[in-house]
Request: fold
Amino acid sequence: MLDTFIEAGKLKKLPRMGWLLRGVPHPESVAEHCFRVALITLFLADELKKRGVSINAERALKIALLHDLAEAKITDLPLEAQHYVDKKKAERKAMVDILGAEKVEYFELFREYEEEKSLEGRLVKFADKLEMILQAWEYEKAGIKGLDEFWNALEYLEQSEFHKYFGELIEELKKLKGY
Reply:
């Protein structure tokens, strides 16, 4: 178990490469990103429950905490690199290496996110995109230019099954950008 904790600690030092490649000085770490994805997931899951949606918030939080753990081994591969590397295959192998054979439950939770197989996995994917847009806005507010491509994730949010619950939130995001 200690080896897993040590491996996960690498995420605190690992910058999010998409931001780095676009000139963001001192970009957020993968761990910082994961923290806010988990926080967003918590609040969204609780809101869904209030609205009568049957969702397992604990399961969603586990998925949120695990969703980028593989990056401790393979790093945060930017989109450009993914043209040359099978990221899904690499992430799966890394998750097996990090978790070990006895942690099959956690690997399955990771797959729920990756494949959007469950309501909880899809919620974390939604939270992941929402977090990325918020981070782009924060960098833009600090004067960083050339981050428009990250706002393309709004389309994912708008087409998501969660739009009917969080449409107002998505509209607020669009207003931040001036859409």
Observations:
- The mean pLDDT is 95.
- The two ends are 47 Å apart (CA to CA).
- The first helix runs from residue 2 to 9.
